[in-house]
Amino acid sequence: MERVVLVRYGEIGLKRANRAAFVAQLVRNLRRALPEVHVENRFDHLLVWGGDLARVRGRLARTFGVVSSSPAVEVRAELDHMEAAARLLVTERDPKPGTTFKVETHRRDKTFPMTSPEVDRELGSRLQAHFPGLVARMKDPEIHVHVDIRDRAYVYTEVHPGPGGLPVGTGGRAVALLSGGIDSPVAIWMVAKRGVEVTPVHFHAPPFTSDRSKEKVVRLVEVLSDWCGPMQLWVVPFAHAQRAIRQHVPEPLWTVVMRRVMMRVAERVAQRLGAPALVTGESLGQVASQTLEAIATIGAATRMPVLRPLVGMDKLEVTALARRVGTYEISTLPYEDCCTLFVPRHPRTRPTLEEAEQAEESLDTPALVEEALAGAEVVAPAATPGRG
Amino acid sequence: MRRAYLDHSATSPALPEVVTAVREVLERVHGNPASLHGMGLEAERVLEDARQVVADVLGADSSEVVFTSGGTEANNLAVFGTVWARPKPHVVVSAFEHSSVLEPARRLRQLGVPVDFCPVDAEGFLRVDALAELVRPNTALVSVVLVNNEVGTLQPLLEVAKVLDEAESRWGRRPLLHTDAVQALGHVPFRVRDLRADLVTVSAHKLGGPKGTGALYVRRGVRLQPVVLGGDQERGLRGGTPNLPGAAGFAAAARFWQREGERLRAHLRVLAARLRTGLQGLAGLRWNTPPEAGRTAPHILNLSVPGLRGEVLVHRLEQEGVYVSTGSACHSRRAQPSHVLLAMGRSEEEASSAVRVSLGPLTTEEEVHHAVEAFRSALADLRFLVPS
């Protein structure tokens, strides 16, 4: 009798051609995150042995590609052993008189001499005999004893949902613009959920922003790394560019031009890393820079595709997700972010590409981009669990 | 890079003799002053010696000194402790008290206690005429800071005491006079009897003492209710094992100022005058600390560059190695304008652009010179942000 955790993956099971690579990546991700356990690939699920169960459970809840997991007892595929396992698990649930239960068997090994309903009935009556207070109920029982009969039998009573998605590392790399706000960390999380490794770029503008705001972004990356695997954060100095924009660009266009310069810097970082796409936390219509026209004008600064996973979400949905990811509390910490000083009093809400390009004629944009890149600092924060 | 720490009113570096005193107690005195055995007695002696030193500096009897965890706790004890010990109390505090007086006063108001906030004039002095109007027969407490922590103005405590004399002769009851002397201790010579105050708050770490240690002078005969319950330490006014190393460090710092105070105050006046002359005439600069010596503490100078946000100037000066603070705490993304400057009738813009420079005993002429240069180049550099 051995304690194991059954890990189910979904989508990746469907993609026949890439399947082996996808499962191998999931196994790698789990081994990196949980170096103390053994992970084994069993064709349509993974088995995890060892380690602290609560820690394993927490880890699995944050590993993209995991659909669900169950702490299980692995025993010989014989009735007496299955009964012992079921008794152990039911005892751990500490049933009171009147607690409802059922047994549900899946017989993957069809050579097993009994049918699934026969096993259900037999184990059910044995449990009933041992726990006289239990009441059998087929619909929504409080204790749902699952029995998976394969070469060995796996008995479990709990199914913990995983985050779903695809294992990080199966979808290539993208470069994301990360501010200290609520949106961009969620955007990174959503892209990582689709298997993409994300490298965040943060624009730091001392003296217009403090070291505390940079510290805040480092903490956001620490929390994101808990989901997305180790990340390298690029901190790009941006004060000089902002100063130039403020001095040379007409005030209503400050924000749009600033975002266009940021896109160019991010594109250059992406080119260096061989990443084919950018990620932003933009969504439609929240603030002036997020009108369709503004998004079009900003996006035109790069030839790379810009992924905007939040585009269809409401603020409330983004906030709820930020809480789940664990970034919300950090994002709402009260540190100045660079934008406020450079926010025009009356921003152009529907800028055109022509006017943005015209405004940029008085800037040496390539030099600003080069200078920002040259000063970039790459930091690799350690992953820390968020509170989501 | 040359550095100049000019934020002594936030906290001051520990003096060498303070470090020695704290270390000695940590290394040698292991007992709890409340213990019955000999080691307890030894600890009690250390504590009482420290109390005697602090009492001497204040011109008080040692039985009148209650050690606390700092100025904030002492202020809370003064405000809540007075009100809870009296029936139907009314409270007056000046509108530009430190938040550790203002917040307790606001809380009292929420709890139904009548509280008035006495206005101050444009130069940063209490309007004694207004105070006289606010005092009522049931006024239990009048709290007026001795040296305002943001602008450094010395408040007319003697005139306040006269207002209380009148109240006493009129109604036969005298309100208690509390003064927060955290910024005054050492920097402005005073004796509690001369101030005619009943309650005086002091703190160690503005004097080169350790953080987390303060005291409340409670004139003999004044009844207070404790705020921190759970032990009869400090004559029942403050439960909890006393901070012995802190008290010893406080005493060491107090002794230093007692010995060197006269010389230090002259030194600070000279430096402050140099700073003032050095910055005089910088375009856009406006002083919030009035010039007359004798009406201000020697170590605090507050200025605004309207239009330039205080925290931007702070961070820009930081790049030059000069450490100062904004006049106000920075909340949320928008810095809150300083409540002190708003109370003095400054505009929101001026109150959001305040910077406080505060000098300490170890500040040198070179540092002041460096700071002046740094201000000049920072202001020239940030000129583009100031609307002309």
Mean pLDDT score of chain A: 91
Task: Spell out the helices and strands of chain B N to C.
Answer: EHHEHEHEHEHEHEEHEEHEEHHEH
Q: What structural category do the secondary elements of chain A indicate?
A: alpha/beta
Whole-number tally of structural domains of chain B: 2
Number of strands of chain A: 15
Cα radius of gyration of chain B in angstroms: 21 Å
The CATH topology of the largest domain in chain B turns out to be Aspartate Aminotransferase, domain 2
Distance between the termini of chain B: 32 Å
Give the uncertain stretches of chain A in residue-range form.
Answer: none
Number of helices of chain B: 12
Description:
The complex is a heterodimer of chains A (388) and B (388). Chain A has 388 residues and is α/β, with parallel strands linked by helices. Chain A folds into two domains: 2-161, VC0802-like; 173-379, Rossmann fold (3-Layer(aba) Sandwich). Chain A has 14 helices and 15 strands. Chain A has helices at residues 11-14, 19-33, 53-60, 79-92, 116-130, 183-193, 211-228, 239-248, 254-273, 292-299, 315-325, 328-331, 353-360, 365-374, and strands at residues 2-9, 38-41, 45-49, 66-76, 100-107, 135-136, 143-149, 152-156, 160-161, 173-177, 197-204, 233-237, 277-279, 306-307, 377-379. In chain A, the strands form two sheets. In chain A, strands 1, 2, 3, 4, 5, 6, 7, 8 and 9 form a nine-stranded mixed sheet that branches. Chain A has a six-stranded mixed sheet with strand order 14-13-10-11-12-15, sandwiched between helices. In chain A, strand 5, helix 5 and strand 6 (135-136) form a beta-alpha-beta unit. Chain B has 388 residues and is an alpha/beta fold. Chain B folds into two domains: 4-12 and 258-385, Aspartate Aminotransferase, domain 1 (Alpha-Beta Complex); 58-241, Aspartate Aminotransferase, domain 2 (3-Layer(aba) Sandwich), CATH 3.40.640. Chain B is 41% helix and 13% strand. Chain B has helices spanning 16-28, 38-58, 71-84, 99-110, 128-134, 157-171, 192-195, 244-279, 310-319, 339-343, 348-351, 365-382, and strands at 4-5, 65-68, 90-94, 115-118, 139-143, 176-180, 199-203, 214-218, 286-287, 300-304, 322-323, 325-326, 354-358. In chain B, the strands form three sheets. A seven-stranded mixed sheet of chain B has the order 2-8-7-6-5-3-4, with helices on both faces. Chain B has a four-stranded antiparallel sheet with strand order 9-10-13-12, with helices on one face. Classes of the chains: A alpha/beta (388), B alpha/beta (388). At the A-B interface, helix 8 of A face helix 9 of B.
